[in-house]
Amino acid sequence: MEGAKKRVFSGIQPSGMLTLGNYLGALRNWVPMQDEFDCIFSVADLHAITIRQEPAAFRRQILETYAILLAVGISPEKSILFLQSHVSAHAEMAWLLDCYTQFGELSRMTQFKDKSARYSSNVNAGLFTYPSLMAGDILLYQAELVPVGADQKQHLELSRTVAERFNGLYGPVFTVPEPYIPKVGARVMSLQDPRKKMSKSDENHNAFVSLLDKPDDIIRKFKRAVTDSESEVKYADGKDGVNNLMGIYASVTGKTMDEIQREFEGEGYGVFKSAVGEAVVDLLRPIQQEFDRLIADKGYLEACWKTGAARAARLAGRTLAKAMKKIGFIR
Ligand code: ATP
Ligand code: LTN
Questions:
Q1: 213/68 same-domain check
Q2: Does the beta carbon of 22 lie inside 6 Å of ligand 2?
């Protein structure tokens, strides 16, 4: 059976509790992919230390990110679900690829430019070489498809360039990965500044809805969401806040923009915002219940990530050995 399906790899950083944006834009699409593809998903903990993390909080975030992936429906039987740092080949491959990636290429990465401006007191080398670690994640598994949001496309392009460069020097070692843009792609914007994407690391906690937020907090955040001075629930240019709320409501309920507009005709924003909040609470309730059950069962989580790491290490080890042999290392 293995080999017949296309291989998929994706990762998510445990840099905070995942948001509604991560769910609607990424995780929710990963779940059905498990039936169509041979999927490998990783909690990218090594990537997360490019930003300073407080040890106790970091440990909790890794654990919670792993549990939330299971809670939304990533299956440890259908897929390989593991912690990146548990498979040492990732760090080793990142070093190899660093030596096949140009300074100029890394300098052009917009995420590096954004993050080095935002965290100007800690512009570490890891922040700069982050794309090599990510390329290694993907290339170690010979992944053909990589589901990512628009923000990661540039990194994926660089992964392709590095894979092609390596293959050009040594023969076919790596599969050159393609970006995979799921059919239902949602881009969820900040509730406080709807021109910015909703981000789990936003300092303003009212700007995002965490997947673990309590129902009252979710309702409150939607009630306070920034809109405009009009009162008509209508999708239109310049109405970024309302457009975003309508997008969330559409994505959660499956309704079209026209249907939503009709549903709230003559109602004003208050009623609409409450409805969006309620819909999100209903969406997250079963996920939160499953999360609560899983997080209390450390033994099960541990068993899952041990199995995941063992399966991942076998695949990754093969590619690492092949790449090292080609370079000339004595094996
Ligand atoms: P950070 O705030 O730490 O940069 P983030 O919330 O932007 O994190 P990532 O871990 O970088 O999230 O992204 C994980 C996945 O979620 C990626 O595939 C990304 O494209 C997707 N994603 C992130 N934010 C959104 C959003 N607001 N809407 C839709 N998809 C998103
Ligand atoms: N950089 C990604 C997370 C990530 C990833 C990957 C995504 C790490 N390794 C490999 C796809 C493939 C992010 O910040 N969203």
A1: no
A2: no
Pairing of strands 80-83, 38-43: parallel
Nearest ligand to the C-alpha of residue 22?
A: 1
Per-residue pLDDT of the chain (331 residues; tens, 9 = 90+): 455 899 999 999 999 999 999 999 889 989 999 999 999 999 999 999 999 999 999 999 999 999 999 999 999 999 999 999 999 999 999 999 999 999 999 999 999 999 999 899 999 999 999 999 999 999 999 999 999 887 899 999 999 999 999 999 999 999 999 998 766 556 899 999 999 999 988 889 999 999 999 999 999 999 999 999 999 999 999 999 999 999 999 999 999 999 999 999 999 999 999 999 999 999 999 999 999 999 999 999 999 999 999 999 999 999 999 999 999 999 8
| Dist CA 308 CA 317 (whole Å) | 14
| Host domain of residue 243 | 205-292
Ligand 2 atom 13, closest CA:
12
Tell how far the Cα of 322 is from the centroid of ligand 1, in angstroms: 33
**CA of 155 relative to ligand 2 center, distance in Å:** 9
Q: Whole-angstrom Cα distance, residue 105 to residue 151?
A: 17
> Scanning the structure block, which residue is given the tokens 């990465």?
109
Q: Which of 13, 22, 41, 252 to mutate to test the pocket of ligand 1 (most atoms within 8 A of CB)?
A: 22
Q: Which residues pair with 42 in a beta bridge?
A: 11, 82
Q: Which of 39, 28, 42 is nearest to 6 (CA)?
A: 39
Give the chain's domain count. 2
Q: Is 9 in the pocket of ligand 2 (CB under 6 A)?
A: yes
Q: Ligand 2 in contact with 50 (CB < 6 A)?
A: no
The domain spanning residue 286 has which CATH number?
1.10.240.10
| CATH label of the domain that carries residue 153 | 3.40.50.620
DSSP 23: I
Closest ligand to C-alpha of residue 14 is 1
Enter the tokens of residue 242: 């309302």
